[in-house]
Design goal:
CATH topology of the largest domain: Aminopeptidase
Bound molecules: ligand BES, zinc ion
Distance between the termini: 28 Å
Largest sheet: 9 strands, mixed
Number of strands: 18
Structural class: alpha/beta
Radius of gyration: 23 Å
CATH architecture of the largest domain: 3-Layer(aba) Sandwich
């Protein structure tokens, strides 16, 4: 989608659809108030009124609710309902009159984010009849706003486009989005950005490095696992930021097989990887002054004659032994290796994103991702990035007793506590063992990666984490 900023008046904007916000109990802004029918427009939050004043040809008034409740999230939601309406009206060019809502740059960014995310479709496997081409989506968005918001507008466009690419990766079926596909995709991202490099380890190299977790999970599948490492040399004086994403391209559960009803959703068990890879591209495109190291362990988790079995003992990359009592708790096994590897490669602060536990969905639903963190300062930074980006996280406690639940009977650790207590935290406690003293934040996105249900995410892949990671990198580079 093309995004531009213009100082045209809404009456003269050359767009198929002009959109303006309206606060409850107020009049439409400026001269739009005198457009025929404008007096009947509703200001209730997300209410829509379509007028045909002639100049502009079509005017969509979007209710912004109470002025005192307005914030960037409400602007994203309002932008999303307007974008859906534009799609229905089949108006390829849209101009949005920037509403008054505190900081203009944040408002402009929220409008762009809400519009681009809401306009997303995943239809590449749909064949369309030649006489019935698919309806054209929004091709251009113009913000009628002061030129000063141009930078924030472009930054939001870059992030939202990257987030939509992450949604593509999530939505692709596992027979397309294999670990090798993700590795090729990482190389492709690197080829588009100066300062980004990629290195990929295959099955033999992973085994040679004795990454026992990744070896164990991938031994049940014919599909070659990949350990993808990306670096972005953006400079800056801050610590090297490590970002790690769970890349299970399909999680059957392995021998501890999942029930079949929702198993197809597990093509998205690589949502953490998708967000991490696309965040690298976005951070590089934005040219943020940060040293970035991304590590993505990618594999399928399959049952087979060669698969790991419940009770088997493995040795992780950091030397710790683990009883694999449930082969469906595979994410922590591959992440523990990736986290220890990230520390070895020089990450000084690490954030990992993973669709790790069903328990986080019980605890926080799809509104907040779960945060488990060994460092108060980093936790504060991730929470702040969440508030700023709208990708919210809620911190869960990391008490030493949780690690007790993960002690093994015959090995150092088990990958599943005998009692199903605090599933999200105990998974975090397991991961904490892999990073030692390095400040580390684990973001469990099992509840937020899909089926979120907001107007700008819909119920499919959400691309959660791209904006969060970009915002965190921006904070660290400031
Ligand atoms: N990929 C799943 C977690 C998941 C579940 C993500 C639902 C999204 C939606 C993960 O590998 C898993 O199966 N975790 C188990 C852990 C348990 C065996 C300790 C779970 O959450 O049930
Ligand atoms: Zn699993
Ligand atoms: Zn999984």
């Amino acid at each position: 989608m093309n995004v531009a900023v213009s100082q045209e008046r809404p009456e003269e904007a050359a767009a198929d659809l002009v959109v303006a916000g309206l606060y409850e109990g107020e009049e439409p802004p400026g001269e739009l108030a005198s457009a025929p029918g404008a007096g009947d427009a509703k200001g209730g939050f997300q209410k829509l009124t379509l007028l045909r004043p002639g100049q502009p040809e079509r005017l969509l008034i979007v209710g912004l609710g109470k002025r005192e409740e307005a914030d960037p999230e409400r602007i994203r939601l309002a932008a999303a309902v307007a974008a859906k309406e534009a799609a229905k009206l089949e108006t390829p060019s849209v101009a949005w009159l920037l509403p008054e809502c505190g900081d203009d740059e944040a408002t402009a960014g929220a409008l762009v984010t809400g519009t681009i995310l809401a306009a997303y479709r995943f239809d590449r496997f749909k064949s369309s009849a030649p006489d019935q081409p698919p309806p054209a989506g929004i091709e251009s968005l113009t913000l009628l706003a002061p030129q000063a918001v141009a930078g924030a507008t472009e930054a939001a466009r870059i992030c939202a486009a990257a987030q939509n690419r992450a949604r593509d990766l999530q939505s692709l079926p596992s027979n397309v989005a294999t670990p090798s596909f993700l590795a090729r995709h990482a190389r492709e991202i690197a080829s588009h950005h100066e300062g980004v490099t990629t290195e990929v380890l295959g099955r033999e190299e992973i085994a040679a490095k004795e990454m026992g977790g990744l070896v164990a999970v991938s031994q049940g599948t014919a599909e070659e696992p990949k350990l993808i490492v990306m670096r972005y040399a953006g400079g800056g004086s801050g610590p090297t930021l490590g970002i790690v994403g769970k890349g299970v391209t399909f999680d059957t559960g392995g021998i501890s097989l999942k029930p079949s009803a929702s198993m197809h959703e597990m093509k998205m068990d690589m949502s953490g990887a998708a967000a991490v890879l696309e965040a690298v591209g976005a951070i590089a495109e934005l040219g943020l002054a940060v040293e970035l190291l991304a590590v993505v362990p990618a594999t399928e988790n399959m049952p087979s004659g060669t698969a790991i079995k419940p009770g088997d003992v493995i040795t992780q990359y950091n030397g710790k032994t683990v009883e694999v009592n449930n082969t469906d708790a595979e994410g922590r096994l591959i992440l523990a290796d990736a986290l220890a590897y990230a520390v070895e490669l020089g990450a000084e602060q690490i954030v990992d994103l993973a669709t790790l536990t069903g328990a986080v969905l019980m605890a926080l639903g799809s509104t907040y991702a779960g945060l488990v963190c060994n460092d108060d300062e980093l936790a504060g930074a991730v929470e702040a990035a969440g508030r700023e980006s709208g990708e919210l996280v809620w911190r869960l406690p990391l008490h030493p007793e949780y690690l007790e639940l993960m002690k093994g009977t015959v090995a150092d650790l088990t990958n599943t506590g005998a009692k199903r207590k605090a599933g999200t935290i105990t998974a975090g406690a397991f991961l904490a063992e892999a990073v030692g003293e390095t400040p580390w934040a684990h973001v469990d996105i099992a509840g937020t990666a899909w089926d979120v249900g907001r107007p700008y995410t819909g119920n499919d892949a959400s691309g959660f984490g791209v904006r969060l990671l970009v915002e965190l990198a921006r904070e660290l580079s400031a």
